[in-house]
Design a protein that fits this description.
It contains 17 helices and 9 strands. By secondary structure, it is α/β, with parallel strands linked by helices.
């Protein structure tokens, strides 16, 4: 088929299993070339598997579930947080088969029972994984096509990674961090500067000032555009106060200018994690109208935490603990800022997530329930109908 020729390089595969015979067997017996794949490495436990994942950035990870040091569940969770588009296949044996169900809400592609493992099953799983990866790559290549030939491709790549989850854009950024941006991994500070969308022209004028500073402080300060409304300023720790002073000066000229900061950064993993969180907080703020700005940052942080933990049985006390205040105090300031209780907000976000999954995917109702932290599908169906006035099946049919 034509879409099989979409890339000149094979899909990278990482195998993680504590049984050497399994790792060797998968390497030697599967016709990887037929699936347009190549095994870049293998690991005997999840801890080493995570290190190798960060080193190779494979598009497909095949991992056992029960392993020493770090099990496959935790490994999959870390990988999905770091690179959501990564396909994951779980390996399982009969005694731990139930663990594989946890992969549903993590977003695992498939799981294979070792005792039932045969060529046909493996080929089918790999074929489906390849097709999904190819769809993602085609989409990502399109989003990254704007990068080529531009004066500052770094900013375009950053935007493609953050907005479109582009694997290729993320790879481009990783390459820069290993080369010209290596200084950013030795204690650098990150400043995400942004303004409301209707104030686009003001950020453009700010960009010109930062570009001038970048020229003056090469390998110590750099502006990376994200989109028309936000950018990332990265600076050496020695320049942190200078950057803060400059931001205050700019805010005096236009009080709509805002920023958040993170750091110091110790490695590529923390760089990606910090940038991703800064971007998420900005997106939460863009879609949130607060009645009171007195505790804005705590409320935004709480909303982001809730969004990242919708697949758990999330309680108000959990969110308050994350913010670092008592449950009663946080419930009070949350209600003042949003006009609703934190319990109601969590329930509403879970409902919105369930609606999104039902309308945009074909996953089973049981899986939708697990992705919003409800393990009993019957309870989920009753809960959903009470809130949406439709059963999950009816809602899915009406929104398709």
């Amino acid at each position: 088929m034509a879409d099989h020729k979409r890339t000149s390089s094979p899909i990278k595969v990482l195998i993680v299993d504590d049984e050497q015979l399994v790792r060797k067997g998968l390497r030697m017996t599967i016709d990887w070339e037929k699936h347009q794949m190549t095994v870049v490495d293998d690991a005997p436990n999840g801890s080493l598997g995570w290190q190798l994942f960060m080193k190779h950035r494979p598009q497909l990870v095949i991992t056992d579930i029960v392993m020493p040091e770090m099990d496959g569940i935790e490994l999959a969770q870390r990988i999905k947080e770091e690179a959501p588009e990564t396909a994951i296949l779980f390996l399982s044996c009969h005694r731990d088969f139930m663990y594989a169900k946890q992969g549903i809400h993590i977003g695992v592609q498939d799981y294979i029972v070792k005792t039932d493992m045969d060529d046909e099953h493996i080929d089918d799983s790999l074929n489906r994984a390849r097709m999904e990866i190819e769809k993602i790559i085609v989409k990502q290549q399109a989003s990254l096509s704007l990068v080529k030939g531009l004066q500052d491709p770094s900013g375009e790549a950053l935007g493609a990674w953050l907005h479109d989850h582009s694997y290729e854009a993320q790879e481009y950024v990783m390459q820069q961090l290993r080369a010209g941006w290596k200084w950013m991994l030795s204690g650098a500070c990150l400043f995400h500067i942004y303004i409301p969308q209707e104030q686009e022209a003001v950020l453009c004028s700010s960009r010109n000032q930062w570009r001038g500073l970048s020229m003056a402080y090469q390998d110590q300060l750099k502006l990376l555009d994200i989109d028309a409304h936000s950018a990332l300023v990265v600076c050496d720790q020695k320049l942190q106060r200078n950057v803060q002073s400059k931001l205050v000066e700019m805010k005096l000229q236009n009080n709509r200018l805002e920023w958040r900061q993170a750091g110091p950064i110790a490695n590529a993993e923390s760089w990606f994690s910090a940038v991703r969180k800064l971007f998420r907080l900005w997106k939460v703020e863009c879609h949130t109208e607060l009645l009171s700005m007195a505790h804005k940052e705590d409320i935004i942080e709480a909303m982001d935490y809730i969004d990242q933990h919708l697949d758990t049985d999330l309680r108000a006390a959990d969110v308050a603990a994350y913010i670092g205040v008592s449950r009663s105090y946080f419930s009070t300031i949350f209600k003042e800022a949003t006009g609703c209780s934190i319990i109601s907000y969590i329930s509403e976000r879970k409902l919105e997530k369930a609606k999104e999954l039902l309308s945009a995917t074909t996953i089973r109702t049981e899986e939708v329930a697990e992705k919003i932290g409800i393990q009993d599908v019957k309870y989920f169906s009753k809960w959903f109908k009470k809130r949406a006035e439709l059963t999950p099946g009816q809602y899915r049919t009406q929104t398709k």
